[in-house]
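Appendix B: complex inputs.
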Amino acid sequence: MSSGHVRVDHLSITFAGKQGPVTALAPTTLHLAPGSFTALIGPSGCGKSTLMNAIAGFVQPAGGAMTLDNTEITGPSPDVGVIFQQYALFPWFTALGNVKFALKRLGLPRAELHDRAMAALEEVNLAQHAAKFPGQLSGGMKQRVAIARTFAAGPKVLLMDEPFAALDAQTRIVMHHLLTDIWQKHRATVLFVTHDVDEALLLADRVCVMSQAPGRIIRDYALDLPRPRSLRAQADVLLPIRDEIITLLHPTHADA
Amino acid sequence: MADVPQPRRVRPKLAMGLAGATGLGRPLLSFGFILTLWIAVTGAGLVPEQIFPSPLSVWQATVEMAANGTLATDLAVSMRRAAIGFGIGSVLGVTLGLLTGRVALVRALLNPFLTLLRPIPAIALVPVAIVWFGIGEGSKYFVVSYTVFLTVWFNTHHGMEYIPDIYLRASRSLGASRMREFLTVVIPAAAPHIVAGLRLGVALAFLSLVAAELSGASSGLGHRLQEARQYIRTDRMFALLIILGALGATVDLIVQWVGRKLVHWQQG
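Resulting structure:
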């Protein structure tokens, strides 16, 4: 079974600007192995979110090709789940209602729909908050609901666009553990966009570094380390990579 | 971090007293003040009673209209017209707003025209309505529903335009069909604007109703107001104006309350 294989080949994306088209993503090639966890890191405006939006089917490419399990990606699909930085929960539904929304397309009987939605919330330790509306939840709780909702839809690929950037440091650590646990259970192919080097090193099997705009992937690290990771315990491997990435992200600092 | 003592805000005595007046206190204070002023002006005998009636004669006029039964009938007739006109106008407004917001062809065909209609005041439509529908109920329904329709349409359409893209992206990547997206994402996302439009529509329903009743009606609060002019009964006019004001405010409060229940997730 090899599902969740993403192939992005020479993909380029342009946006209409005031003075003609603007290149948001220079031709980029990226293959994601089924069940892998890849972090995509780069300076702001480098096109990492654009690349993610293209794989999500939100943005039409100007050139190149994208496939999921050898099928062309032409638009959003439940095979490709997305976790947004702003959570994107529907505020008019409860936490449970949000998760049910993802399960609706399966056409389950009422009781099973409810049970599966509750089980998904249980997985992110939010069963006791099922009846609350997003407005009544903290940022970390909202993102947990969003994770439960996205996994409930059973995606083969999970795209995460700086999902924890809006959370405080403590909550972020909790979320890292939670995400790692759930991912190891579901084994979707993850593409995790971030600008936090430590986050990338702690979570991913592979870290791709993008250049300044118009972005391209300029470095690709494989990290074969056991989880849960810590920068201190695995310092001899992680710290040199960390220093390299930071230099790559801020080339001007080295010159100054 | 240690607690930094905050400088105490010193408020003048009067403001302090006002802050204490909460809930019903504030409006009662305001009404009491205006009423006192009114009694003082009319009591001083500066203006003839027939031009500017005292609160007492306005009260007596109200009692008189209540006793002879016209008040209850007028209220019922006017409320019925406002309600039916509002019903027709708001259903059409919401429906068309959802369509112009969602379907590019409908938008292209209707938006420029409807936008052009918006600045036409409702009163200007009354003559046309009378020619088309006579002085009976039809012309009232037409004027009210037309006014309500335009406002509700505009707000609904506006709400549809400002639906955050992220909701649609989330909905589609979760595999929702277009129909489910429309019913459970698009409509709730536009709901705060729709509700705001309905609330405006209620206020405009009363406004345009009275405009329609003032010329060419044989019943209703607006007609009674016009009749009072013929007999120079300013006491009745004042009574009717106050009733109209109170009625509008009450209905607005109810709509506001219902609206808050409907879009409970919208804060502030």
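The radius of gyration of chain B is 24 Å.
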